[in-house]
Amino acid sequence: MASRRPSSPRKEQWAAALRVDELSFHDRGPYSFTVEAGQCVGLHGASGAGKTLLLRAMVDLDPHQGTVWLGDTRQEEIPAPRWRRRVGLLPAESFWWYDLVGEHFSRPPASEQLVRLGFGPEVLGWRISRLSTGEKQRLAFLRLLANRPEALLLDEPTASLDAANIKRVEQLVLEYMQSRQVPVLWVSHDPEQLQRVADWRLFMDGDSVLHREA
Ligand SMILES: Nc1ncnc2c1ncn2[C@@H]1O[C@H](COP(=O)(O)OP(=O)(O)OP(=O)(O)O)[C@@H](O)[C@H]1O
């Protein structure tokens, strides 16, 4: 983990921690943990353990008890769409509802980020139907960053990518996290990836328990 932090200029910073407070949903939980500002926590556990459900509850996509805090703001204090802009979820499978890539960006993506993930500006005119799975995953990630979320919830964000693009996405997340001091919760089945990106890890077992690991 020692060499993982790229240096980058400090931009706008929010520096708010993300705190999960006695969160339970369906028949799981309660879960409590904190991701500090500028920190990446890796979340792993067996398939079906409930990692995706946890992320969905954190952005109020499923019914739940307990709450989530971003700094001093409680999830239920602000309308769900606004909360989801502030706490950005990258789902394992991205959703696309318009014909063209560019129609899905509320703000234009940073051209430097587009280039780093292998795209030129013309990608904004591409049809969604022509995209490969990996292209969709990279573009969904860029769409998320373009909204400038104050916290990132990443559900297997590199599952469909080749080794070079995995490294680029990891690098971009860490730069964004560090320069804006956002908390990041990163779900992955790859222990080596979590070793590279995470400050510490949470293991979700089948008995609704989260174990903190170094
Ligand atoms: N709305 C729901 N209500 C109840 N159970 C659900 C609901 N959606 C999913 N599940 C179940 O909850 C379990 C946990 O699903 P989840 O997708 O969170 O697992 P996961 O840990 O993310 O797994 P994977 O690593 O395979 O992505 C699964 O058995 C799933 O079928």
From TrEMBL:
<dbReference type="GO" id="GO:0005524">
    <property type="term" value="F:ATP binding"/>
</dbReference>
<dbReference type="InterPro" id="IPR027417">
    <property type="entry name" value="P-loop_NTPase"/>
</dbReference>
<dbReference type="Pfam" id="PF00005">
    <property type="entry name" value="ABC_tran"/>
</dbReference>
<protein>
    <submittedName>
        <fullName>ATP-binding protein</fullName>
    </submittedName>
</protein>
<feature type="domain" description="ABC transporter">
    <location>
        <begin position="12"/>
        <end position="214"/>
    </location>
</feature>
<dbReference type="GO" id="GO:0016887">
    <property type="term" value="F:ATP hydrolysis activity"/>
</dbReference>
<keyword id="KW-0067">ATP-binding</keyword>
<dbReference type="InterPro" id="IPR003593">
    <property type="entry name" value="AAA+_ATPase"/>
</dbReference>
<keyword id="KW-0547">Nucleotide-binding</keyword>
<dbReference type="InterPro" id="IPR003439">
    <property type="entry name" value="ABC_transporter-like_ATP-bd"/>
</dbReference>
